[in-house]
């Protein structure tokens, strides 16, 4: 496979290599470097030129393809969180209804690789296979377009190729690498309603500027604007389009123990701030329609 990809997608700014069982794709140009794997269509690293990685990946992440890599930007689609039969429709084999959908468990195809001006763009895509159809019988195409330019742009494009409408919730489940997560300020969520998963999704309003709690697991709804993570020596800007929810998650000192692929101390150095459409921000995608959600990352 590696030889095939290197020949088929020969590009001066791109290198394909293998890590354990996974195919890795490294984009590198004057703006920086980004690394993805076809496993789950997951972006694992983004290092702006002259800067540090914005993304956190666990030191004990698994690279054998048996589960998503813990870290980076897992793609949660076509459902975020638990499978909601009342919205998605009940189907036979529940075992297939894993949290956060099936996309992050599947092998994606390399669709295209090109220069866009002096930026470099990679498109990965996923279409149904037998395993997916057991979980979810609809025809679709899901694409992830990643453009390494002045900023890093990530677009998630869902296409309904079936003859009926279906309901989608989703997230770009980004793990940010930060100096110290507990107490770190995140600007841009002031006054927004959120549902606290750790309190049975009880609703609250973010009265003042958020200081990250460890643990926390909150879905901010009707929130379509940017946020800024005030990391120790940099500001991480997250701009987004077609995303009405922002999820903030940190497992905390106790919760982290439940994750075999996450060392106990590492909750201190990561926070997930996820651009998505969750809970009541989910939407119906009509037959033949497409929906594009995007996230743009920059460190200043
Ligand atoms: O362990 P995972 O399935 O990757 O989920 C990790 C976390 O993802 C999201 O942020 C959810 O809001 C959390 O409730 C969940 O624990």
Automatic annotation (TrEMBL):
<dbReference type="GO" id="GO:0047938">
    <property type="term" value="F:glucose-6-phosphate 1-epimerase activity"/>
</dbReference>
<protein>
    <recommendedName>
        <fullName>Putative glucose-6-phosphate 1-epimerase</fullName>
        <ecNumber>5.1.3.15</ecNumber>
    </recommendedName>
</protein>
<dbReference type="InterPro" id="IPR014718">
    <property type="entry name" value="GH-type_carb-bd"/>
</dbReference>
<dbReference type="InterPro" id="IPR011013">
    <property type="entry name" value="Gal_mutarotase_sf_dom"/>
</dbReference>
<feature type="active site">
    <location>
        <position position="274"/>
    </location>
</feature>
<dbReference type="GO" id="GO:0030246">
    <property type="term" value="F:carbohydrate binding"/>
</dbReference>
<dbReference type="InterPro" id="IPR025532">
    <property type="entry name" value="G6P_1-epimerase"/>
</dbReference>
<feature type="active site">
    <location>
        <position position="173"/>
    </location>
</feature>
<keyword id="KW-0413">Isomerase</keyword>
<comment type="similarity">
    <text>Belongs to the glucose-6-phosphate 1-epimerase family.</text>
</comment>
<dbReference type="InterPro" id="IPR008183">
    <property type="entry name" value="Aldose_1/G6P_1-epimerase"/>
</dbReference>
<dbReference type="Pfam" id="PF01263">
    <property type="entry name" value="Aldose_epim"/>
</dbReference>
<dbReference type="GO" id="GO:0005975">
    <property type="term" value="P:carbohydrate metabolic process"/>
</dbReference>
């Amino acid at each position: 496979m590696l030889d095939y990809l290197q020949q088929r997608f020969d590009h001066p700014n791109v290198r394909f290599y293998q890590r354990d069982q996974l195919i890795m794709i490294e984009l590198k140009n004057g703006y920086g470097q980004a690394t993805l794997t076809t496993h789950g269509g997951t972006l694992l690293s983004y290092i702006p030129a002259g800067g540090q990685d914005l993304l956190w990946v666990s030191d004990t992440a698994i690279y054998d393809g048996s589960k998503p890599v813990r870290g980076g930007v897992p793609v949660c689609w076509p459902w975020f969180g638990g499978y909601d039969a009342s919205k998605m429709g009940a189907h036979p084999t529940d075992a297939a209804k894993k949290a956060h959908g099936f996309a992050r468990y599947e092998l994606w195809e390399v669709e295209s690789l090109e220069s866009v001006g002096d930026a470099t763009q990679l498109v990965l895509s996923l279409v149904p296979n037998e395993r997916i159809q057991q979980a979810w019988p609809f025809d679709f195409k899901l694409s992830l377009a990643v453009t390494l330019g002045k900023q890093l742009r990530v677009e998630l494009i869902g296409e309904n190729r079936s003859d009926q409408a279906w309901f989608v919730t989703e997230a770009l489940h980004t793990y940010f690498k930060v100096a110290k997560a507990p107490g770190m300020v995140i600007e841009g969520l002031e006054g927004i309603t959120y549902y606290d998963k750790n309190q049975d999704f009880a609703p609250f309003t973010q009265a003042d500027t958020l200081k990250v709690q460890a643990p926390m697991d909150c879905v901010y709804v009707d929130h379509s604007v940017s946020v800024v993570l005030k990391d120790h020596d940099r500001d991480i800007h997250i701009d987004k389009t077609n995303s009405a929810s922002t999820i903030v998650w940190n497992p905390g000192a106790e919760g982290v123990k439940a994750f075999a692929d996450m060392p106990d101390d590492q909750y201190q150095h990561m926070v997930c701030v996820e651009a998505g459409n969750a809970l009541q921000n989910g939407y119906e995608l009509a037959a033949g329609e497409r929906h594009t959600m995007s996230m743009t990352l920059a460190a200043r």
